[in-house]
Amino acid sequence: MPATREAVVRASRLPVSIIIVGVGNTDFSDMRALDEEDGTQESGGERAARDIVQFVPFREFKKVS
């Protein structure tokens, strides 16, 4: 997870967005941690330039139609 967090912080300076779709009934706490809404994503003391991660748990939307 530290390498992923570092990659997200580095990518936050680029014109990119990351969308993560959680499929199944597993624990997605690590994915939710990457989708910090308050913009406090950090790695090695370096703060993300902007919020680029959106996590969507599929099970919350699969019956909506």
UniProtKB/TrEMBL annotation:
GO terms for cellular component: plasma membrane. Residues 1-63 form the Copine C-terminal domain. One of its GO terms (biological process) is cellular response to calcium ion. GO terms for molecular function: calcium-dependent phospholipid binding. PANTHER family: C2 DOMAIN-CONTAINING PROTEIN, COPINE. This is Copine C-terminal domain-containing protein. It comes from Chelydra serpentina (Snapping turtle).
